[in-house]
Amino acid sequence: MAGDLTTIARPYAEAAYDRAKELGQVQAWSDALQLLSQIASDPQMARQIANPNIARETSRDLVLEISGGALPDEVGNLVRLLADNARLSAIPEIAHLFEMSREADQGVRQVVVRSAYPLGDDEREELASAMVRRLGGQVELTVEEDPGLVGGVEIRAGDLVIDDSVRGKLDQLAHALQF
User: For 43, 89, 132, 142, which has the most beta carbons within 10 A of its beta carbon?
Assistant: First the structure.
């Protein structure tokens, strides 16, 4: 499901980033999308947005009202477009992808490393250096501990996924054996 949402959000995020860059308002759009993400992520608002019995216009107007006029005009137009296309629920993912585009444009890549065990400073530095060589530019490394991996690591940098975990290898084996 998350992959589906990313597929839906990506064209909106790319268009929003391109427009924000064209207008020289990347930071203003970033701030506005973060605000919209917080609004759309609120559990009550998320239920309202997902409720098919509530008119899209009602949800749209509520989102715009809650934002309190803090949105640039064209971001308000984006909200209207998303509402018309029943895509308001994609706002948090659009904001996330927008930030990824902004960071990539600045030469910073977000890399999430999930490890079965805590990583030491030397291991973190070695992973960061390897990712800099692989991706180029600067790398911002986030390390998460996930005992469910059993052993090894899983690395995610945008669309790049390197799964060198025991669980990943077992999943590949199960798939090959058609379990």
Answer: 89
Are 83 and 12 within one domain?
A: yes
95 in the same domain as 27: yes
- pLDDT single digits (tens) 19-47: 999 999 999 999 999 999 999 999 999 99
| Sign for the pseudo-dihedral over CA of 56, 32, 111, 131 | positive
Alpha carbon distance 32, 72 (integer Å): 8
pTM: 0.67
Tell which of 78, 103, 128 closes a domain: 103
> Distance between CA 54 and CA 46 in Å, rounded?
12
**Residues of the domain holding 172:** 107-176
| Lookup: tokens for 118 | 């805590």
Contact 46, 40 (CB under 8 A): yes
- In the numeric block, which tokens belong to residue 90? 């994609």
